[in-house]
Design a protein that fits this description.
The mean pLDDT is about 95. By secondary structure, this protein is mainly beta. The protein has one helix and nine strands, in the order αβββββββββ.
Length: about 110
């Protein structure tokens, strides 16, 4: 990931701190994991789409998300990242992440 893409993910997570989080989708064959953030009573959502996932441990949903996105040391020839929320015991290890806003269905 380019440094500006990492910054984009971090800024979006900071903007959505305190939202409700929901594991939206996991494709084992594509190693893709999608987390949906939303706020009760407010229209809109944020999808955090993670690619190249090699590990995850997560509740199916939780409130008051406080997500961090950090690079991790690796012996692989490509960078790896961890998105985590310590209080929710949520962690996903991936090689790339992107953000999408107001993904259907929008409540």
């Amino acid at each position: 990931m380019k440094p500006e893409d990492v910054d984009k993910v971090r800024l979006a997570l900071a903007e959505w701190r305190g939202a409700d989080a929901l594991v939206w989708l996991y494709h084992a064959s594509h190693r893709q994991f999608t987390l949906r953030l939303h706020r009760g009573g407010a229209r809109g959502n944020l999808h955090v789409i993670l690619f190249g996932c090699s590990f995850f441990s997560a509740p199916s949903q939780w409130r008051e998300a406080d997500l961090a996105f950090d690079g991790v040391p690796t012996e692989e020839p490509f960078p790896e990242y961890v998105i985590s929320d310590a209080s929710a015991k949520f962690v996903v290890r991936c090689t790339h992440a992107t953000i999408e806003r107001d993904v259907e269905p929008v409540y």
